[in-house]
Structure formats: structure tokens, C-alpha cells
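Box 3.1 A note on notation
Throughout this textbook, protein chains are presented in two layers. The first layer is the amino acid sequence; the second is a C-alpha cell string describing backbone geometry. Keep the layers aligned when reading.
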Amino acid sequence: MEISITDVSDVEKEIKIQTDAAELVPHLEEAYKRYQSKIEIKGFRKGKAPISMVKQIYGESIEYDSLNTIASDVYRQVVKEKEIYPIGEPVLTDIDYKRGELLSFKVKYEIKPTIELKEYKNIPAEKIIHKATEHELANELLRLRKSHSTLEPADSVSDEEYLVTANIQQLDDTGSPLIGKTTPDAHLYLANETIVPEIKKVLSNAKTGEVHRVKFEQTHEDHKHNEFLELTVKKIEKVVLPVLNDEFIKKITKDKVSSVSDFQQQMQKDIEKYWQDQTERNLIDTIIGEIVRRHEFTVPESLIKGVLDSLLEDFKNQYPNKKLPPDFNEDKFRETNRTYATFQAKWYLIQEKIIDAEKINIEDADLEQLAENEASKFGIEKDRLLQFYKSSDSVKDRIVHNKLTDLLKKHAHITEKVVEEPIK
């Protein structure tokens, strides 16, 4: 067997393999056997014809039909023998087969880049800290009350706390209705921050049965245009918020909390915990971003594609039956998310090097501690949870990730900055 490897780029190689007739024999025999079970020859039951007869009648056809499979098998054999570690899907090209003489072909494949690990300790990072405010607590309590609100019929609107049901007809710039552009029984909650301001304004004193026309500017990606609507008010309902008292708190917590003051204290802790978690996430993102910036190397296309495939799958999960909208542009989605995918693929390779350099691994004590911490959370016995964790790669990856981020934060040069505005 003749083998030659050519560098296409830092992360892509092309291997040329040529085998002689003797080396092909076992691969061809396997191909004959695969086809034997499918072939019908007169005088024999299907799949029972002698292999010698199969070769005589169909041998040449089987050989040419099996070239891709044979080439792939030979390639995998060479990869194992030469201790080559390809990533992604190899691309088979230039197959040349001379029956009874030789088979030659080329395979393009990618490998992980050679990475010179740069400094990943003493990384300067600013830790943005936001303390929860009374205003945020008040907003959360209001949101909670709104989620338990009731509706009462009304004839007109007098403030934001109204739900207006209207038929919406799109118009052209002359005021004529656009055929097929009608939305019946649209629900417009006037206190919703996402409602178009112009629509909110025309409905601020609306009455049942009124017709209102509104014009506003709409932004679509790379352009803006005017939108013209006609709103026919069909129904108005007052949004009635429950009174914030002990009875309300007992009801929504199923008697787990008995007073407004206790509930407010618990909510204050929850808000503070949220911002603490947000602070830690932003801090580690800052450190990782700086580490990635310090490393320059070519990222294999197959790794970028893998991240994009995962993002697309997550996006599909947001739709019923994982079916994307008819006008969804997958090419544009991949192009838009390519920078992010490249960053993630790059960090994946760098963190592998750091984990290896720091000898970060999983110990039984790590799994036992995690099982003990989470047993009550999931309502599962510790020993049973521990057995699951021992067999779960995702749990082990989580532990390694946490150890890595703890190490990076421990050795980073962190300065704190307290801000009044919430962290984005």
C-alpha cells in the first residue's frame, strides 16, 4: 500500500492511498458477501446462490458499486495504523479503480490545530456588581400581581390597565384596505411595554365600537417603512390586579409563606441571587473572551459547522414539531451566527489545552459531593443519584467546566465596579 499525505492548510490534510490487487481481496470478499443475500439467481432461493456464481455473474458490478465503501474502510484502517486523529467528516475524491490491479483514491480530512497555549492566568477582568433595588422589588411584585389579574367588562379606556380586543386591518398609503391583511380579535394590553406607542396613544381613550386609524414607522432588518392600520374596537376589559395582602401571598404560595413581609424578604433574596449569578456569568465570559483573544490559530471548519448545527437545532426546538417557518433562510442564519460559532469552537480547543495542562479531572469525591448537594433538590436518594452521575458524561463535563471556571476566576486579576443600572 502506498500512502502520501499533503498539507492543504494548518488544519486540513489530503491523504492519497493506493492499494494493489492482493490488498483488495478481503475487502472485495466482504462486498460479495453483502450482495449475496440480496441477489436472486434462477435455480436458487434469494440469497442462497453460491458465492462463486455471484462473482461470475455480478462480480464487476458489485466491485464498482462498492468502491466508496471499500475506500472508506481502507481509509479508516490507515488512520488507525498511522495514528491519525481526524475530526469531522472526511471527503472522498479521485477514485481510480483498475479491476484486478489497483485502487487509488484521495481523502481530505481535518485535524485539530497545533495550539501554543498563551497566558490564561492573571487575566485582567472587571467584575460589574449591581445591588438589587426597592424599585426592582416593586416591579417584580407588580409583575406577579399582573400574572394573577382578572378581567372586568368596560365601555371605555381610562388608563394603561386595559385589554382591548380589536380587528386590525392593514391599509395601503392611500387608506384602502389590503386584501387578506386582516387580524381578527387581536388582544392589545395597553400596559405592555412592547406595544407600538402610536397604537397605545390612539387607544388611550377608546370606546367600544370605535374605529381608529394609526400610522407608524416599522423597521425590518435593513430598511424602514410606514405601516397603516385601521383598528375596530370590539371589546374593552379592565385589568384588575389583586390586592397585595397576606391572603394573596398564602394563595399563590399554597400556604408556604404566610405574610407579605416574609414574601418580600424571600423575593429580595431571589433577586439578589439572580444578580449574583449574572455577575459571575459576565465575569467568566469576560475572562474567556480575553483568553480567546490572545490565541490566534485556524479553527477547523467542521467544528464551526458543529456549533452552527447545534444552534440551528436549538432554534428548531422553538417551533411546533421542530418545523421552521417557510420563509426561514438557513444560509443567512449560519452566516449571522458564524462569528459566535467560531468563537465557541476556538474556546473549545483552548479549554481542552488548559484542562490538560492543569490536569483537571473527575474524582469520586466530586460526584459524591454533587449527588449530596442535589439529592434533596430532585427528591432522589443520594446513592441512586450518584449511580446516575457516574454514568453521565454530561454531568462529568459540568464538573470539569466548573473546576476550570473556578481556576480561571481564582487566578484572574479582578477589579470590582458597582453600578446602579441592572446588568445586561
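Residues 130 and 422 are 6 Å apart (CA to CA). The longest strand covers residues 223-240.
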